[in-house]
């Protein structure tokens, strides 16, 4: 069987399975309750970010897995300045003057900075986005690394996360992408990581 026939023969069954998983996410989201918060939402001030402190508040998210998380600004102050500062850091990365891999910048200005998901330890992923407690990590993972470019005049950020214990990897990604479509984050891409 040649390539074209292989694709045509198998496409429908694979597509139907994906559609079924995506359709099931409607029920998962429709049945969300406050008990699905991975922890109480956390607010991180600009001073905390700039100091690069350990941010112990994030420990509430430790060992939470299969989560979709949302990083938002506490208010609309400085949105254009945040976008400009981020773009400058992206340019510095291209010129090898900034070591941290930053996510895609979207054509949007919004109070939502980022929507993401992880099947692994949520706190570890949030520490990457905050740019603290990185250990020996060299910044190769794509994240916001806020402490590496945030300014004192920027607003505090609020982190909320929902845990979907029973969702498959495909369902978790679909929920993340749908939340992203709703919240229109300034940074990050849709779709799975290339791992």
Can you give keywords for this protein?
alpha+beta, four-stranded antiparallel beta sheet, 195 residues
In terms of per-residue confidence, which ranges show pLDDT below 50 for 5 or more consecutive residues?
A: none
DSSP E strands, number: 4
How many distinct helices?
A: 5
- Helical percentage: 25-40%
Radius of gyration (Å): 18 Å
**Overall pLDDT level:** 90
Structure class: alpha+beta
- For the largest sheet, list the strands in their spatial order: 1-4-2-3
Element-level helix/strand string: HEHEHEHEH
Strand content: 5-15%
> Major sheet, described briefly?
4 strands, antiparallel
Distance between the termini: 30 Å
Overall geometry comes to globular
């Amino acid at each position: 069987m040649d390539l074209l026939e292989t694709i045509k023969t198998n496409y429908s069954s694979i597509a139907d399975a994906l559609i079924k998983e995506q359709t099931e996410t409607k029920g998962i989201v429709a049945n969300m309750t406050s008990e699905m918060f991975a922890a109480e939402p956390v607010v991180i001030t600009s001073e905390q970010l700039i100091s690069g402190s350990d941010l112990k508040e994030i420990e509430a998210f430790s060992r939470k897995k299969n989560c979709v998380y949302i990083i938002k600004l506490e208010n609309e102050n400085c949105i254009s300045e945040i976008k400009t500062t981020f773009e400058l850091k992206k340019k510095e990365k291209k010129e090898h003057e900034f070591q941290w891999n930053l996510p895609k910048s979207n054509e949007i200005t919004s109070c939502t900075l980022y929507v993401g998901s992880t099947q692994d330890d949520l706190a570890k992923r949030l520490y990457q986005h905050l740019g603290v407690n990185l250990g020996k990590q060299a910044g190769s993972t794509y994240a916001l690394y806020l402490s590496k470019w945030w300014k004192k005049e920027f607003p505090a950020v609020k982190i909320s996360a929902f845990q979907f214990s029973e969702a498959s990897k495909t369902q978790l990604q679909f929920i993340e992408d749908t939340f992203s479509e709703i919240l229109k984050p300034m940074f990050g891409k849709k779709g799975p990581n290339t791992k």
